Amino acid sequence: MRLTLAAVLMALSLHAQAGSLVIHMMLHAIGEERYEIAPSSGGFTVNTTHHYADRGFFDRTVTASLRTKTDYTPVSAEVKGTGEPYVARVEGSEAMVQENGSTRTFTAPDGYFAITGPAPFALQMVMMRYWRAHEKPAGVEMLRAEPGAEPVRIEFAGRDTIAIDGRTIGLERYTIANLMFGREVLWMDEQGNLAAAMTFAGGLPMEAVRDQYEPALPELFRKGVAQEMADLEALGRETPPELSGAFAIAGAILVDATGAPPVEDAVVIVRNGRIAAAGPRSKVPIPHGMTVLNGKGQTLLPGLWEMHTHFSGVEFGPALLASGITTARDCGGEFDYLVAQRDAVEKRGALGPRLLLAGLVDSGGAKAFGHVVAETPEEGRAVVDRYRAAGFQQIKLYTYLTPEVVKAIAAEAHRLGMTVTGHVPRALNTVQGIEAGMDQINHLNYVSSMVRAPGSQHVDLSSEAWTKGARFLLDHHTVVDPTAGWGEMSGHSKEVDAASFEPGILKAPFVLDVKFRTMGGNATAEQMRVRMKESLAVIGGLHKAGVPIIPGSDTGLVGYGLHRELELYVEAGMTPMEAIQCATIVSARAMNLDRDAGTIEPGKRADLILVDGNPLKNVSDLRRVSRVVANGRVYDPSRLWRSVGFRP
Hints:
CATH architecture of the largest domain: Clam
Helix content: 25-40%
Number of helices: 16
Mean pLDDT: 95
Radius of gyration: 26 Å
Strand content: 25-35%
CATH topology of the largest domain: outer membrane lipoprotein receptor (LolB), chain A
Largest sheet: 13 strands, antiparallel
Low-confidence stretches: 1-9
Shape: globular
């Protein structure tokens, strides 16, 4: 690849430099990265240490060493601290990469870089210098141990300025795709240094900002959100709806989720985003000249509700829609981004499911989750007021809130017509959390702990503790969001291929395939089986007792994670219909929206899915969505999947 003379001279003229970046998770500072770049024989050596403490649960240090030629082409790279080390070496035309227990030797591409994800950020900075020095190619091949990685795509997106100590600093803004799922937003300064980065996608939102630019992070974040909205518009242009306005869906088996028997050869009429009529063809005539979507051989159901996601980038929208999800509840993210995403969908018809918001709040200083905190009852009430004014439906409590703050938050939320969900704060047990005002509980472990007999390591559904606990939940109308599928994925045995229980991985982009296959703990396959068996017994027991169960996949495989959650519910003893109702009408009731959505009935939102097969016989047929109707707009899932890098 030909280099410009100016680029070579620029590289040769660089002297040793050092810098540091402040690392944030959801705009809350959690660590830093320090790096050094020094001239070495024939090029440069980069050494960096990336460290952060996440919510008091994890303390992570990632170190990296990179040697490059004068044009920033990698010669060797080593990244430690993210599981198995990543090692890459290039000698002549031969490349060798070790990663996640695999080793591959192959002919190095003409142009390439060596990096394995969003961190350390100093490697991204050097990757940007490589891209600039090599005439800004459309794609940069990554050296990975498994073949199939999509080239990283870097695009110039605009110029921004920030004011620091009375000086105006010019920055160039870029988007980076395929480094992880979705696009990052990244800024470079005039000296070729990384000024800031926003990694929206791939799990939980994270930011990095050069220490001297830290005061400008809020401004840069707002510019990044604007960039995300521009990216969302581009996705919408790429995958427009096939139909909207007035149309009919005819010939499918209608499962309306009310509990009524399925209707063969049904007709559903949609007008302007609402269901105008629904029933058997013999009773619902199709108006002359109306466009008809043929549903013969398929099943028509309400759109699914994903009740625990962390909406971390605009790419989530197409993936969720493609999997049949027309309503999603975010359980903790960045305020400005979530409001912008929600409003773009609801007010401007942007691509994505309807987004319901649970406003995250925590305490605890450095250990807090996110930047919205409440240390006193007064601060707690103020947080609730702010979220309510912005149209959030719920408050999500987190780990370090004190009992008096929890009570104040819950009382204010209830006064304003909001509900309260979340983790049970450490200062309370589950019973105390519910008595303090929690309406819903995120994650099954909080429920399992309250129905387990004192001193026991296991739940016994015949015990007094179980009976008493289940009755307590029922009497308090508590809604449980188990996230069983996320528990299975995040803690699965390394002896078990994740694709064996989550086949969606086989269709996922390379970066997600690698992420989820290499995730897991040290449990054996048998220990994993026993743990999941108990979790499913608890879910089945709660359902049998009448406790409402709502499904969510947390930070599992976007879209497909909800399908897995419902499959587990059927394994837990629910009928397929009951599992489907959990993801439709039960969720709608939990959010006080059952008069507007959750079933296929006249007057309700036209949120519908057509699936190949019959999920009442095999709930896994929900993975086979052929058309999705979101607020009266019909989309082809295969186009949606492709737009964000999945294979249909």
